Amino acid sequence: MTQGDFWVLFAMLLYFIVVLTIGFIYAKRSNSSTSEYFIGGRKVGPWLTALSAEASDMSGYLLMGLPGLAYFTGASDAGWTAVGLAIGTYLNWKLVARRLRRYSVVAGNAITLPGFYSNRFHDEKNIVSTIAALIILVFFCVYVGSCFVTCGKLFNTLFGLDYLPMMCLGAIIVFLYTLVGGYLSVVATDFVQGCLMFFALLVVLIGSVTMAGGVENVVAFLQSIPGFLSGVEIAVPVTDANGLQIVNNDSPVFGMPAEYGLLSIISMMAWGLGYFGMPQVLVRFLGIRSADEIKRSRVIAVTWVVVSLFCAICIGLVGRAALPTMFATNSAAENVFIVLSQIMLPSFMCGIVVSGILAASMSSSSSYLLIAGSSVAENIFRGVIKKDATDAQVMIVARITLIVVFLIGILIASDENSVIFFVVSYAWAGLGASFGPLTLCALYWRRLTMQGAIAGMIGGTATVLIWHNLLSPLGGIFGIYELLPAFLVSLLCIYIVSKLSPEPPAEVLYEFDHYMDDDPELEKRAAEESIAVEKATVQAIQD
């Protein structure tokens, strides 16, 4: 190991120590009850809620997937995806956050997303929550795997170490602090990680532009690549028989750009629809201490997302100008952020910056592990199997579930040639189509029935699986991102089946009609109880 590698590793080790320490700090309080372990007792302030929601959402694809996509094929795919994500983030906070926070309290004080769905319909057999929990379990295994891929690629690129053991090491660290600390440790570390990711993106973007000779030189070079900066065309790298981009006279070879039409634009912007069904984001709405603080959180969250997405795409574009022939495949191009950091920055600073990649991966995978555990333990074990289970028994089952998802995630991540962006897109579509239409209808449509909810979840999930695996390979109109048709199918199933089903019971309709009624005393008490908690959290992070 060189001296430079030592300082990079030392900086990353300090980061590990910080996140693990936060996990152990919150261990005692998190283990006091399932409410504390799964949603922090609904006492999390607006700053922690906002950065936690976005850091857990923006997994490895923010610092590796998006820059890699922009590096390899130009601005269109990555750019329109970012537009969709930014719009989706805003609409989710605007349309869902406040209503879900209030309705979850009215509907049996639900502490998980599947629990809210069942309570919304007074589903005493917990059929809705069981189906939702199983869907979460399936797609979160894929999501966790994508995060572990990020860890493996990071260490492999930085130190030349074998991918598989390095991937397992990163996975173990995430697993440990999630297992011990619960929701509060995840939220607190997400706050630190969100700040680190933001800092890393800005530093690498500014440095890479300087390295490439300034904005004018970067733009001139990229304009010479057919379709690279166009929003209605996509660059086409010319590859050899092995799938590697051809290099001629130290320049990457591109063919004629392909048309990037309206269907492709709609397909990429459809990513924004996924937010309405993302459990790792929606659970943050359940945990905020007061619905009245949603607006403040929304401003923080949207600002963070817009700036971060812009920086991530620009890093990929500038990276093509700075390192035009470095990466010959899309999978390899996902390392552009890491390589730029190595080249530009002193070793210790490089270690701090690339820890932003670990931050992205760890914040997301910890959320996925925790939500998968809470869904199975609270909604299947206590909801169906053992309804008189104690909090201690539920948390044991949750931790067993964490181990199972952790092991499946490692299995999925064992392929080092996985393209993070595409792995994430599959899980994103599955969750978005299964829960997005249901969440919106549950909050806005009085006539929604339990039968309609079940039909919507199954219809959305089935469409994603069929479209991705059978129809998408056919190309043409079937090449559209599977989230869009699956979202529409889910909505249609919800509407048709709800209309054909008997009207919801009177008590369900009464709750729907009154869940947004003001209860200032309830909100005041929740806020007063949590002020001390937020101060202690901020102080712990500062210490």
As for the number of domains, it is 1
The mean pLDDT is 85
The CATH topology is given as Sodium/glucose cotransporter
How many extended strands? Answer: 4
- As laid out across the biggest beta sheet, the strand order is 1-4
CATH class: Mainly Alpha
The CATH homology group name:
Sodium/glucose cotransporter
Helical element count?
22
Major sheet summary line? 2 strands, antiparallel
Order of helices and strands: HHHHHHHHHHEEEEHHHHHHHHHHHH
CATH architecture: Up-down Bundle
- CA-atom Rg in angstroms: 23 Å
- Derived structural class: mainly alpha
- Low-confidence segments, ≥5 residues, pLDDT <50? 520-531
Shape: globular
- Taking the alpha carbons of the first and last residues, their distance comes to 32 Å
**Beta fraction:** under 5%
Task: Classify the helix fraction into a percent range.
Answer: over 70%
Quick summary:
By secondary structure, this protein is mostly helical. 75% of the residues lie in helices and 1% in strands. The protein has helices spanning 3-25, 27-30, 34-39, 46-57, 60-73, 75-106, 113-120, 127-159, 163-211, 215-223, 262-269, 279-287, 294-322, 330-333, 336-344, 347-385, 391-413, 420-444, 450-471, 483-500, 506-514, 520-542; strands at 233-234, 247-248, 251-252, 258-259.
Q: How would you describe this protein?
A:
By secondary structure, this protein is mainly α. The protein has a single domain, classed as Sodium/glucose cotransporter, CATH 1.20.1730. Helix content is 75%, strand content 1%. The protein is globular, with a radius of gyration of 23 Å.
